[in-house]
Every structure is written in C-alpha cells, then in structure tokens.
DNA sequence: CGAGTCGTTGACACTCTTCAAGCGCGGTGG
DNA sequence: CCACCGCGCTTGAAGAGTGTCAACGACTCG
C-alpha cells in the first residue's frame, strides 16, 4: 500500500516499510508540535486506547504494511514475542521522547537545529557507514514542519540553517538536500550531551 | 523503605508507594530538564537496558518497594500479566511525555505555569473529588525544579505565579501550598487543548 | 500567465533571560 | 539566646534571543 503524502488518521496498525511518518499534536488555536517521527521499520499505532489525540501523517512517500485493529489485538494475545517486541519499541520511543524534551526545553535555537540535523543524519542517511565522518541526505520535512518539531518558527529555522552553511558546517542543495562533511563539528553545535560529567 | 530526599541512581526496580520521584536529564554544561514525575503507584526503572542516562531522585519524602534487577526480570519472563501491565504503563508514560512536549515546545511561559499547576492539581490534590471545582495541594518541587520541568527560569516561574495570584486564580501560602478555587479558570490559562477543532 | 507554496532575508517588537539586590526562614555556632 | 550564614523565593532593570510582520525570489501546478 503506497501513500503519496496526504494526511490521514491511523486507526489501524501498521508497519512502516519505507519513508517517514510524522506524529503531531496541536492546540485549538493552531499551534502545532511534532512529537515524534517514525522511520522504517517501526510499528505505528496505539494499542489499548482510542487514538490518543495524536495525528499521524506521511512526511514523505511512505510504504506501509497495515492490519485491521482486531487482527493485531488477536496477534498480541496469541504471541508473547509480539507483545515483547512492542514493549521494547515503546520503551525506545519513550527514551527518544525524553531526549527530545531536553532539546525542546533547554537548548537554544542554534542547538535545536543542529540536533535535528544530527538526528536526521543518524536516521536517514543513505550512505552512512556507522561512525562515518560525513553524511548526506534529503530532509523529509519542510521548514515549517522542522519548526513545529523544534518549537521555534520557520524563519528561525531558516536563519540557523543559513548560519550553519555560512560557517561551513553543512552544504545545502535545492533547500532540501543536506551534506554534513564533519559529523563531529555538527555534534559540537548540539550543546553538551553527557549526563553527569 | 523510606528515603528522605537525597539523590540516588535507581539501578533496581521499584514501585512508588507514596511521594513523588522526579526523572531528569542534564547537559554537560549544567542545564537540566525534568522529563517526568512518578507518582504512586507507578513502576520505576528501565528494563532491557543499562540505565538510559536518566537521573531519578526523590522530590518529596518517598516510600518505595524495590526489588533487585534479576528478580524483576525473572518475574517478567514468568508472568505475562506483569509484562502486559508494564507495557500499558509505558504507553501511558509515552502519552504523557508527548503531551508535555507540546507544553515545552509551543506554550508561552504563563501557559506553562498554568499547565503545571493543573497537572499538580490532578495528580496530588489531597481532597479532590473527580471533576471538583477546586483543588488544594503542596507543591512537591522548588521553583528551580519547576523551571527545569517547564524549560524556563525560576525567576519567570516566580513571576507567573505571583501574576496568577494577583489575578485571583490561585492562592499561595508559605510559597509551597497552592489553592485553586476554580479549576476551569485555571484551564483557560493553559492554552487550547483539543486536537483538531 | 497567474496563483500558490516554500524558502530566505530584513526591520522591529516583545517575551524571556540575565544579573543584581533584598527578604524571610531554619540551622549552626559563638 | 541571638548573630550569622545559606537557601529558597521574590522583585527590579537591562539586554539578548526569538517571534512577528512584511517583502521578495524560485518553483510548481493549473
């Protein structure tokens, strides 16, 4: 099943086979916050609850493998292994969410943008040999979406990106394709990362 | 087992029987973000992983019921019901984390403080009959901790609290005990809450 | 060709932070 | 017993960092 990018509510369960799905929440006055991105090959959906006021939509062209609600809930009862894997994924998503809370609450705009690029490099770089020094990828989000992810405005995102480009940390083509020559230089701009030095 | 408020790393698993435990992450330059609060009767700990760089410490006097790591992992293998409940709690924490991401990323300082008070009222009010109009409780956190939870400075927290008091939304005694006479008035200050109107 | 979206850039306003001082309270020691 | 100090909290004044508003170019789609 192939989506081309249109918004949709997910009331069935799916596996993301390719592409990026964005999860967002919004306030009644229009403010919006992206609360997570699902890359392949992750599970999509929220068991045990009517959809928790989260909107899911495709950020890029997305390939899904989806099942009706009932079938998945049957599988979960039948297979321990399935429930176990779901628990592990949920714990990972919780870790990521909390990590991102630090970025949202305590990092400056330049650090937020750098952190976002670093996360992108680690998740969707097409040619990244683990621990490589450089990365190159297409941004799956528009500036406005990035701003909703980082809790800043699209103008600020744009300004910080051009600043990173001016400083030689990244190169940008077509406004969407980003190349990072030195990952470690990018990491230095993310604001300290360790816990308790 | 009774803690009196000192910091400690949790490498065993525990149930929170009473009190409030605060979970935080911090950057190497000292900036800190509280990423969650655990109230009774929740589970505390992170299975399947070396502690994920999260610090847990008691915010108030806390009563725990804790088990060694190995015992809990045995229980999880033995009892489906146990793993199932852990999954449900983790999903709930994920929902809360994402809800808070909206507050961190998209709400103003006045809205953040109001949202925090509302959350406190719902979680630790000693005399709250569901859907009651008023609430009264002791804050489990200092101003500095609240600011680390909301991603603002303690000065801003203080200013917004006195503003809420000046506007008659809350009353404050001893700088710690808060009374909310009209919950709905407080809710109006949290910034719209619905998903897609 | 006109309309719409996305991205960039500039000028200005404003929220929030930073820095500083002061108050109240509890613990400690002279 | 009381002065002293430390800590949490409040308040003020000034400044920095982002947001807001606006204009413009590049590109896509009808």
UniProtKB/TrEMBL annotation, chains A, B:
Alphabetized InterPro entries for the sequence: cNMP-bd_dom (IPR000595), cNMP-bd_dom_sf (IPR018490), Env_Response_Regulators (IPR050397), HTH_CRP (IPR012318), RmlC-like_jellyroll (IPR014710), WH-like_DNA-bd_sf (IPR036388), WH_DNA-bd_sf (IPR036390)
Domain of life the protein comes from: Bacteria
Alphabetic keyword roster: DNA-binding, Transcription, Transcription regulation
CDD domains tied to this protein: CAP_ED (cd00038), HTH_CRP (cd00092)
Classification via PROSITE patterns: HTH_CRP_2
Record flagged with keyword DNA-binding: yes
Name this protein carries in UniProt: CRP/FNR family transcriptional regulator, anaerobic regulatory protein
UniProt GO cellular component terms: cytosol
Any one GO molecular function term: DNA-binding transcription factor activity
